[in-house]
Design brief:
The protein is an alpha+beta fold. Strands 1, 4, 5, 6, 7, 8, 9, 10 and 11 form a nine-stranded mixed β-sheet that branches. Strands 12, 13, 14, 15, 16, 17, 25, 26 and 29 form a nine-stranded mixed β-sheet that branches. Bound molecules: oxalic acid and manganese (II) ion. Manganese (II) ion (MN) is lined by residues 226, 275.
C-alpha cells in the first residue's frame, strides 16, 4: 500500500520483534470493512445486534477488568522528569523502550498483525496528521475505522514523507501490572500494551490527538485541546462557533449536541466535535478549529432522548456498543436510557440480569462508537479542512457552591488563569469520594504531553500571537441550593447562557465587573419557559465569598508543585485572592 521507506523500515522492525503469523494492511475499502466485521464476529470480538432495529450495530464485551483509561499506567517518555512536570508519570525513554522490547517479543505469534494507516484531521490539510497503528485487536481495527479516516487516504497523503506518528498496540495478556500506555513525543511514537479499552488502545484519540499533538502544538504555535466545538446560528443566519473544555461527567457531549429551547425560535446549533479540538491561527488573525476525529466515542449511561436526542439518533445505526446491557430482543439498554428498565437482559459481563438483581446492567463507563456524520445536527463545515473561526472558548466545571452560572474572563491572561484553575467536584460514580474538588487545568490534566507549567506559558504566548483572540468564559451548570437540589435546569436550557455569551462576543450584552470576572445582569438572560422564579435565578448568579476563598486556598495548594509556573499565572492567583478578599 505504500513504498514509504521509513514506514516499511519500521514495520519490518516490528514484524521481526512481534512475530505475527499474518499481516493485513487496512486499506479503507468497504469490502475489507465487511471482512473485518466477519472476522470479528467469528472471533467473538463483536456480536451482531438486532439488524432490523439497529442496522449495522454490534456489541463488544471487554474483559471486566479493562473498562477505562488507566492514568496511573500512562507515561510520558521525555528525557527528564522535569520535562513531563508534576502532573504526568515519567518513564525514561531508553528504559521504557527496552522494557517494551521484552513485552512485545513474540507478542503476535499465532496472531494477525493489522496495520492501520490513518489521518487525524482532514486529508491534505494543514491540520491533518498521519499515524499508523499496528494492532492485534479486531475491535481496535473496527473502532479506528469509525473514529478516524483510515486506509489509502492516509498513505496517499503521506507519500514519502517521514512526518508520521508510529503507534504500536497489543491487547497482550491484559496483565494489569504490565499495562503501559507510553508516549514518546520527541519521536512521535506511542506504545500501548495489555489494554483493549478505547482511550488506551485507539491510539489516534487521546494518545495522538491530545498528548503527542499538545507537545507538537507547543513547538509549532497551535493548540491541541480537550474541547467540543459547537456552531450556533442566529435567526439572521450568522453562525458563531465556540470551543468548550470540561472535565469528565460535566455534560460535554450533551452540550456539543444541544438543541435550543422552544423560546429561541429560529436559532440552530451544529456539532463539529464532542471531545477534541485543534486550533490554529488563521490568516485573519483569529483562532480556527477542527475536530480531528471522524466519530464519537461517548459514554452510554445517562444518554437518552431527553438528555441528548441528537446522539440517540446518531447511534441508531452503524455503531459499536461496548459493555452495555443486551436486551431480550437483542438491542441495547443502559441506566438512564429510559425511565423503565427492560424486564430482563444480559448484563455487560454476559450474565443474566433483571432490574431487581441490584447490579448495573451496563458498565458506568460503557460506550458507543459512531460515525460523526450520522449526527442529525452535524455541521456543514465538518469536512472543511480550514476549520471554523472560534468566537468564544468556554471552560466549565461541576461546582455546587459559590461559582455562578457564567462569567467572562477580563482578558486573555485572565482567561488562561480561568482555564488553568479549572476545578470540578468528583461524582460518586467516578471516585466514591463525592464532592472532592479535583483540579483539572483546561480539562487537560490526563492529556497534556509535557510539563503543564510550560503548557500554561504556551497558552499565554498564544494570546500574544493571536491578533483577534476569542473571548474566554467560565460556566457552571451544577450550582445547588442548601438542600442539595440543582438550581439551574441545565440541558437545553444551557443554551440561554450560550445566548449571552454570543451577545458578549458582539459586545451587545451588558456586564457587571465582579471578583471572578464580567457577569451578566439577571435581566439579560432569557429565563422564560424555565419555570425558574427570579429569586432562584438570582442564586444561580450569586457569589459566595467563603467558597471563593476556599478556591484561592486550593489554588495555592495545587500550583505549589509546579516548578515551571509562569510568573503571570502566579500574579493571577494572588490577584484573584485580593479581589475576593475585597468583595
Ligand atoms: C473520554 C475521556 O473518553 O475524556 O473522552 O475520558
Ligand atoms: Mn474526553
Amino acid at each position: 500500500m505504500t513504498n514509504n521507506k521509513e514506514v516499511l523500515k519500521w514495520i519490518n522492525e516490528i514484524t521481526e520483534l512481534t512475530k505475527p503469523s499474518e499481516i493485513i494492511w487496512i486499506d479503507g475499502s468497504e469490502e475489507q470493512k465487511k471482512e473485518i466485521y466477519r472476522k470479528a464476529l467469528e472471533s467473538g470480538d463483536l456480536m451482531e445486534l438486532n439488524q432490523e432495529k439497529l442496522p449495522g450495530c454490534y456489541l463488544h464485551r471487554s474483559n471486566p477488568k479493562d473498562t477505562a483509561r488507566v492514568e496511573d499506567r500512562t507515561f510520558i517518555c521525555l528525557p527528564t522528569k522535569e520535562d513531563v512536570g508534576p502532573t504526568n508519570n515519567w518513564f525514561e525513554p531508553e528504559e521504557a523502550k527496552s522494557r517494551m522490547n521484552k513485552l512485545f517479543n513474540g507478542v503476535y505469534s499465532g496472531r494477525t498483525m493489522y496495520i492501520i494507516p490513518f489521518i487525524m484531521g482532514h486529508p491534505n490539510s494543514e491540520f491533518g496528521k498521519i499515524g499508523f497503528e499496528i494492532t492485534d485487536s479486531l475491535y481496535v481495527v473496527a473502532s479506528m475505522m469509525i473514529m478516524t479516516r483510515v486506509g489509502k487516504v492516509a498513505t496517499d497523503m503521506l507519500k514519502d514523507s517521514i512526518d508520521f506518528v508510529k503507534g504500536l498496540h497489543s491487547v497482550g495478556t491484559l496483565d494489569e501490572k504490565e499495562k503501559y500506555i507510553l508516549h514518546f513525543p520527541e519521536e512521535k511514537s506511542i506504545i500501548s500494551v495489555n489494554s483493549g479499552y478505547g482511550g488506551n488502545a485507539l491510539l489516534g484519540k487521546k494518545c495522538l490527538s491530545l498528548r503527542i499533538a499538545s507537545y507538537l502544538a507547543q513547538k509549532e504555535n497551535w493548540l491541541a485541546e480537550h474541547m467540543l466545538i459547537l456552531g450556533i446560528q442566529a435567526p439572521n443566519g450568522d453562525t458563531k462557533y465556540v470551543a468548550a473544555a470540561f472535565p469528565s461527567a460535566c455534560g460535554k457531549t450533551n452540550l456539543a449536541m444541544i438543541n435550543p429551547p422552544k423560546e429561541f425560535e429560529g436559532y440552530k446549533t451544529f456539532t463539529i466535535g464532542d471531545d477534541i479540538a485543534w486550533l490554529r491561527i488563521g490568516e485573519d488573525g483569529r483562532l480556527w478549529a477542527v475536530n480531528p476525529e471522524a466519530g464519537f466515542f461517548g459514554v452510554a449511561p445517562g444518554t437518552s432522548h431527553k438528555s441528548n436526542y441528537n446522539m440517540m439518533e446518531t447511534i441508531s445505526k452503524n455503531t459499536i456498543y461496548t459493555n452495555v446491557l443486551q436486551t431480550e430482543d437483542n438491542t441495547v439498554w443502559w441506566e438512564g436510557m429510559t425511565d423503565t428498565p427492560p424486564e430482563k437482559g444480559t448484563d455487560w459481563k454476559g450474565q443474566p440480569w433483571t432490574p431487581e438483581s441490584g447490579e448495573k446492567g451496563a458498565h458506568p463507563n460503557s460506550r458507543f462508537t459512531a460515525p460523526a456524520k450520522q449526527c442529525p445536527c452535524v455541521s456543514p463545515e465538518f469536512d472543511n479542512p480550514n476549520g471554523v473561526p472560534i468566537s468564544a472558548i468556554i471552560f466549565g466545571g461541576r461546582r455546587s457552591k459559590g461559582v455562578p452560572l457564567v462569567y467572562e474572563a477580563m482578558n486573555w491572561e485572565h482567561g488562561v488563569f480561568t482555564g488553568a484553575s479549572l476545578c470540578s467536584e468528583t461524582t460518586a460514580a467516578a471516585e466514591g469520594n463525592m464532592g472532592r474538588l479535583r483540579h483539572d487545568p483546561m480539562a487537560m490534566l490526563p492529556f497534556c504531553g509535557y510539563n503543564m507549567g510550560d503548557y500554561f506559558a504556551h497558552w499565554l504566548k498564544m494570546g500574544d500571537l493571536v491578533e483577534n483572540p476569542p473571548k474566554i468564559f467560565h460556566v457552571n451548570w451544577f450550582g445547588k441550593d442548601d438542600d442539595g437540589n440543582f438550581l439551574w435546569p441545565g440541558f437545553s436550557d444551557n443554551f440561554r447562557i450560550l445566548d449571552w455569551i454570543m451577545k458578549r462576543c458582539e459586545n451587545k450584552a451588558e456586564y457587571t465587573e465582579t471578583a471572578l470576572g464580567y457577569m451578566p445582569y439577571a435581566k439579560d438572560i432569557n429565563i422564560e419557559g424555565t419555570g425558574l422564579d427570579e429569586e432562584t435565578f438570582d442564586k444561580c448568579l450569586a457569589l459566595d465569598k467563603e467558597a471563593l476563598l476556599q478556591s484561592a486556598d486550593s489554588y495555592d495548594e495545587f500550583f505549589k508543585d509546579f516548578d515551571r509556573l509562569p510568573q503571570k499565572i502566579k500574579e493571577q492567583i494572588s490577584n484573584y485572592r485580593k479581589r475576593v478578599e475585597n468583595m
